[in-house]
Amino acid sequence: MAAWLKAKPGRGNTPLVFRLFGYAGTGKTTLAKHLAQGVNGKVLFAAFTGKAFTRAAKRLTVVV
């Protein structure tokens, strides 16, 4: 993740999207929140299921 941020997402061959996967309870939402706090600019979150979105929305600032 640090290498992705240092490579300036959207510049050169660095993708704009960082995908974070893992089992329930492994700290994905906490890591996403920490990452978003250190980024200048707009940060968007997405989830594959309604349940995952609902749980993340309780811990993140969400604009729908």
What's the SSE pattern? Answer: HHH
When the domains are counted, the total is: 1
Number of strands: 0
Give the biggest sheet. Answer: none
Structural class: mainly alpha
> Which blocks of ≥5 consecutive residues have pLDDT under 50?
none
What's the end-to-end separation, in Å?
26 Å
Description of the structure:
The chain has one domain (16-64). Helices cover 39% and strands 0% of the residues. The chain is an all-alpha fold and 64 residues long. It has helices at 2-6, 28-37, 50-59. The model has no long low-confidence stretch (mean pLDDT 81).
Give the secondary structure arrangement, pairings included.
Layout: H1 2-6, H2 28-37, H3 50-59
